[in-house]
Amino acid sequence: MFLHALATAVPPTVLAQPQCWEIARASPALQRLSRRSRLILRSILTGDSGVATRHFAIRDIAGVFDLPEDGLNAEFRREAPRLAGEALGRALAQAELRAEQLDALLVCTCTGYLCPGVTSYVAEQLGLRRDAILHDLVGLGCGAAIPTLRAASHLLAARPEAVVACVAVEVCSAAFYLDDDFGVLVSACLFSDGAAATIWRGRPGATGLRCHGFHSLHRPEKRDLLRFEIRQGKLRNLLDRSVPAEAAAAVTELFAGERAAPPAAVLVHPGGRDVLDAIGGVLPEYSLAASRAVLRAHGNMSSPSVLFVLEEHLRSHPALTGDRWLVSFGAGFSAHACRLTAG
């Protein structure tokens, strides 16, 4: 399948990490933490974590840790379709298409639950045809964008004439939780909100990029290292200290399984500074500059992040020859990869 457009969207509220600390230190939620936890938060938010700024969709980000579960879900229901629709609207404009020309819309998310899913809201918002295929993929975590593209490739294999849109959207701030667990504290300092939309067809488009060579790796026995659980009705992120090493090991295994020629570029989900350092250690011949740039400007937006990295890379290396190897990882523990070939 061929890429015809790629567009992103972030909420208007953007805070530098030291601003996040000033908001946190004034929050009653902080006073419920141990002194050690408060020191960890201050150290990460005022130090060099690889993140400079983050965008938030929650209207009252200062009170996010005291919002009840119904309030958090209401924020997700309002903001996830808005962000997804904004990104998709930009992608449609790039591709010079109207919403009613879309034959299918696939949306992945993990930071909230809607039934019907986000696709229903976006279809109404943008005016998709009533017979358009709507598919929502949930529960795949940070790695979800690439499996969503893989699903689109199967749909296009069956219907080569179709126009298919894929959107990855996360409102991570609607899944913020705070307690004394180290992984929970790191999550509160790292995650943010955003959406990325792509449009695909069975024939070449303006980008000249063909997506193929999908591979996935699943390690369910390590599921509890990185996943959401429900605590007091809220999503609570489990994030083990071993995740950087696990991500590097998974990427190494996927890369070793590649049968095609080595790619010209490796584009990695920016899961965090330590994650990128670990992956850089096992793939030292590749620059992770695009991933680090996205992490610094946006933090970890979960599933859309790897597509932000692709957008950043295409902006800075538009004429690169050779394959771009896209890789994401997350809950499961799982990792996913695909190739983008010019021409």
3D structure, described in words:
The chain is 38% helix and 26% strand. It has 343 residues and is α/β, with parallel strands linked by helices. The strands form four sheets. Strands 1-7-6-4-5 form a five-stranded mixed sheet, sandwiched between helices. Strands 8-13-12-11 form a four-stranded mixed sheet, with helices on both faces. The longest helix has 27 residues. The protein is globular, with a radius of gyration of 19 Å.
Question: For the report, how would you describe the main beta sheet?
Answer: 5 strands, mixed
Please tally the β strands and state the result. Answer: 13
Q: What are the secondary-structure elements, in order, as H or E?
A: EEHHHEHEHEHEHEEEEHEHHHEE
Number of helices, counting only DSSP H or I runs of 4 residues or more? 11
**In percent terms, what proportion of residues is strand?**
25-35%
Widest β-sheet, arrangement of strands: 1-7-6-4-5
Give average pLDDT, whole number.
Answer: 96
Query: Using only CA atoms, what is the Rg?
Result: 19 Å
Relative helix content: 25-40%
Morphology: globular
Poorly predicted segments: none
How far apart the termini lie comes to 12 Å
| Structural class by secondary-structure content | alpha/beta
